[in-house]
Amino acid sequence: MAKYAAAVDQGTTSTRFMIFDHSGSVVSLHQLEHEQIYPRAGWVEHDPMEIWARTQDVIKGAMQKANVKASDLAAIGVTNQRETTVVWDKRTGKPYYNAIVWQDTRTDKIVEELSQDGGQYRFQEKVGLPLATYFSGPKVKWILDNVDGVREEAERGNALFGNIDTWIIWWLTGGPQGGSHVTDVTNASRTMLMNLHTLDWDDEMLEIMGIPRQMLPEIRPSSDPKTYGTTLAEGPVGGRVPIAGDLGDQQAALYGQTCYSPGEAKNTYGTGCFMLLNTGTEAVKSESGLLTTLAYKIGDQPAVYALEGSIAITGALVQWLRDNLGIIEKSADIEPLARSVDDAGGMYIVPAFSGLFAPYWKSNARGVFVGLTRYINKGHIARAALEATAYQTREVADAMAKDSGVKLTALKVDGGMTYNDLLMQFQADMLGVPVVRPEVAETTSLGAAYAAGLATGFWSDQESLRENWQVAKRWEPKMDEEKREELYRGWKKAVERTFDWVD
Q1: Each residue of 249-268: b (16+ CB within 10 Å) or e?
Q2: Which one, out of 128, 370, 430, 461, has a CA that is 20 to 30 A from the CA of 479?
Q3: What is the mean predicted confidence (pLDDT) over 190-195?
Q4: Phi-psi category of 475—alpha, beta or left, where left has phi over 0 and alpha has psi -120 to 50?
Q5: Alpha carbon of residue 95 to chain centroid
C-alpha cells in the first residue's frame, strides 16, 4: 500500500523532488541547481534538456535517500516556474530553442505593438493579465517569428509548446513515445492565451499572437482523478506511478498553505515574490495593477480564482549581490551583514532588473540605488536589499486591499527567504500585521503533492489537508506607524526614479 505522495518542484534556479507522508511532513528531498543563461542584456534562458536531466537526478536522489520505491508512492504532482516557455519537436524531444524564462524582456517590442491598439489592458477582461513581457504568449510568438523553421513545424503539427510543467509531464509519461501533452488551468492562465471564463484556449488571442492551436497542450484540472498519465517503469521513478497534480508554483504554494476560503492570502519569497489572495469562484477584475489568475481546479469542482501581485526580483537581488557584486559569499550571509548596521542609512534599492511588475507593469523601468552618501557601506546595501522585498510586498498588499475590499489581518508566508528573521520582522513592521510561517515551509512542493494525493485518494478531502497546517513561527509588528509611513514614503519616491529609463 502506498505510504507517500511526492512532487517535482521545478523552479527558476533549481529543481527538487520532495516526498511527503500523510501528515504533510517531509520524508525526503533532493535538490540541484541549473545554469542561468544570459545571452545579452534583458535576456534570460534555461537549457530545457539540462532541466530534464536535473529532474531525473533529483527523483532518483530523493527516492534513494529514503529507500522509497515506486510502489510506495500514491501519486506525483508537478509544480513549476510559470511563464517560462519551451517549444520542442514532438518526434525527438529536442527543443528548437532554449527555454525563455519569465524574467526575460526580449518581447518588449511585441508587447509594445500589441498595446498600440487598445492599450496595455486591452485583453484584461478575457485573460486577466496586462500586456507584459512576463507571460508565455509573446515568448511563443518570438520563437515562431525568430527561430528558423519553427513556424512551419508548428503548422505541420510537429512543434509542441509548454510551460515547464508540460515539458516535465511529457517526458515523465513517455516523451517522444506517447508522452502526455497537457497543462493545468493555473499554468494556462499565465500564457495570455486562455480565456478565464471558458478555461479553454481563446481563438481570438491565438489569432492575434499568430500561434497555431495544434502546438498547445490540453488544459486539465490541477488535481485530476483521471490522471495525466503514469511514469515509465524504465524512467527515473523506476515504476508506474500516476501523475495527477499540476499547479504553477505560486498556486501550488497557495494550495499547500491551505488557503481554500475566499479572503485567505499567502506570499512566497523566492527568486521573486508572489502574493495570492483566494477570491473564490469569481474572477475579480483588478483596478490596481494585480493579475486575475486561476488559483486551482480540483477535479470536476468549479474553478477557484485568485488575485495575484507578482514581484520580479526579491531573492534574485540577494543572488545578484552574491554573484555579480561579490558582497557576500553565500545567500545566507546577507542577514548577518544586514544586522551589522541599525538601518539602511537612508538608502533604497529598487531592483527593477526586468522592469517593474505589480502594481506598476512598467517594462521600461530599470533598477536604481538611491540615497547614497559616503556613510553607506556594504551592511547598508545588504539591509536595503532585504528591505526592498518588504516594501514591494507592502505595495502589493495595499493593491489587494483596494481591489478586494478585504483588509489583511495576517500574512501566511513560505519560501527560502522566510528563514531570514530580520526580513520577516521588517515585513511585519511594514505591513502592520503578523507574519506567520507554517511548520512545512516548502509549501510549493507540498501543494503539488496535495493535489496529486487528493486525486488518487491518498488524502480524502481538503479538510484533512487543513488539519496538517501548523504554525512554526510568528512575527508581530513592532514599528510605530509614523516611522513605518516615513520609510514607505521614501520607498515610493525611489520607485518613481526607475520609471521610463529605457526609451
Answers
A1: bbbbbbbbbbbbebebbbbb
A2: 370
A3: 97
A4: beta
A5: 22
